[in-house]
């Protein structure tokens, strides 16, 4: 995994290229997916061939679609580390017009906590572990090692930029980069609706007599393994989440051992991999239905 700390200044031999492209190539060489930003510091819009998703990409760019347009279309999903793409004729006009460079934090295995004002910075300094910091126009970017689902306005003046998001590149920053803490992951859950096993959940029926799974260590080990299975998934995230929920419920779903805390840990793991709260609740409800709970 590459860190912005490894990014070096652009060699003089690239001086003939637009400044934004020189910066982008340096970032790309360090494994950071990049894209150009136009006036207003926003990505370039879709080209005529891709306008209104006629190319077949997913609406609103929730995930990179099947489109293979050579132009820097589709916002964050256009970010790349391929120098052949970055220097291609299809991208040349964009680099000439670019006012800045952006990168896809999640694609580099990073998360940016975007702090927009002094109050947000003060909150971060008393709540979050110190990490690599980059000054912005109004505040600071705190960069952590680890990716998660991005979300804006998780609290006043605080945005999370990671998977399916872009952040403006403002320099390598200062300080040692820390691992992504649970306190940051929890921000996206707190910003969502309260986590529940299902939209109309009912208490899980308890078995009569002593529950064989009530040993705290046994249950906690099972939850840890379930969270690890979701976290380590590299593909088929939907299916992995469902199968994991099914496995947990098949073991603990009828004994009444599962608490809201256990379920929240599972939901947080799934949301960190990009699942929405609705996907989590649907998967949980479907697993319950399959098991007749």
Molecular structure report:
This protein has 293 residues and is of the alpha+beta class. It is built from 9 helices and 10 strands. Strands 4, 5, 6, 7, 8 and 10 form a 6-stranded mixed beta sheet that branches. Helix 6 (216-231) runs antiparallel to helix 7, helix 6 packs parallel to helix 8 (260-272) and helix 7 (237-252) packs across helix 9. The longest helix has 16 residues, at 216-231. The chain is globular and about 70 Å long.
How many strand elements? Answer: 10
Q: What is the CA-based Rg, rounded?
A: 22 Å
> What is the string of helix and strand elements?
HEEHHEEHEEEEEEHHHHH
- On the 0 to 100 scale, the average pLDDT is 80
Q: What percentage of residues falls in helices of 4 or more residues?
A: 25-40%
Low-confidence stretches: 1-13, 191-210
Number of helices: 9
